[in-house]
Write a structure and sequence with these properties.
two-stranded antiparallel sheet; 9 strands
Length: about 180
C-alpha cells in the first residue's frame, strides 16, 4: 500500500485543473514535470498579457512506469497529455502536456500501469479531449471496455470514461 494510506492516484496531475480540492489529502498527485511556466495569453484578461501555470506534483513519476505495487489504489484518475501538435511555447502544451511521437505505445503502457496499480474492484476515471486524436483511437489501446462515459466541454470534444478493474485480471491474480 502507498505511504500515508492514500487511496487515489492522479499520475498526470498537471495544474490539478479539474480537482475541486487541489490539496486533497487522500490523493497522490504525480506528474513528470515540476515547474512554473509563464506564457503569453492575452485572452485571460491580465494587464501584462501573461498567464502563470504551476505544476507541483507530490511525486515526480512517469505514467508509463508507476513506482507503486500492484493493487495500491482504489481510484486512479488518468488524464494524460492529449496534444500531438503544439508549439514549444504554446499555452496549451504547457497546460496539458504534449504526447511523444510514440503516443500510442505511451498510452497503451499508461492504461496497463493504471490498471496494474488498481486494487481489486478499483475504478479508473479517464479523461480525453479529442481535438487532435479521436477518442476511439485511444480506447483501442486497451482491451478493457469502459462501463460508461460522458461528453462535455463547449464543443463536446472532452470525454470522461469510467472503468472498473476487470474480473479477468482479478481471477488471474488469484490463480
Amino acid at each position: 500500500m502507498v505511504e500515508d494510506g492514500k487511496r487515489v492516484l492522479d499520475p498526470c496531475c498537471g495544474g490539478r485543473m479539474f480537482w475541486l480540492d487541489k490539496r486533497n489529502p487522500d490523493v497522490v498527485f504525480g506528474d513528470s514535470r515540476h515547474e512554473t511556466i509563464v506564457v503569453t495569453d492575452r485572452s485571460h484578461g491580465r494587464m501584462d498579457g501573461t498567464r502563470t501555470l504551476r505544476i507541483e506534483p507530490d511525486v515526480l513519476l512517469d505514467f508509463r512506469n508507476l513506482p507503486y505495487e500492484d493493487g495500491s489504489f482504489k481510484l486512479v484518475s488518468f488524464d494524460p497529455p492529449h496534444l500531438v501538435r503544439a508549439g514549444a511555447k504554446s499555452w496549451l502544451a504547457a497546460k496539458y502536456g504534449k504526447l511523444s511521437e510514440a503516443w500510442q505505445d505511451d498510452l497503451r503502457q499508461g492504461f496497463a500501469e493504471c490498471f496494474r496499480v488498481l486494487d481489486d474492484d478499483g475504478v479508473l476515471v479517464f479523461k480525453w479531449n479529442e481535438t487532435q486524436v479521436k477518442v476511439r483511437e485511444v480506447l483501442a489501446l486497451t482491451d478493457i471496455q469502459p462501463l460508461f462515459g460522458q461528453l462535455s466541454g463547449n464543443k463536446g470534444l472532452t470525454h470522461w470514461y469510467v472503468f472498473m478493474k476487470p474480473r479477468k485480471q482479478l481471477d488471474e491474480k488469484n490463480d
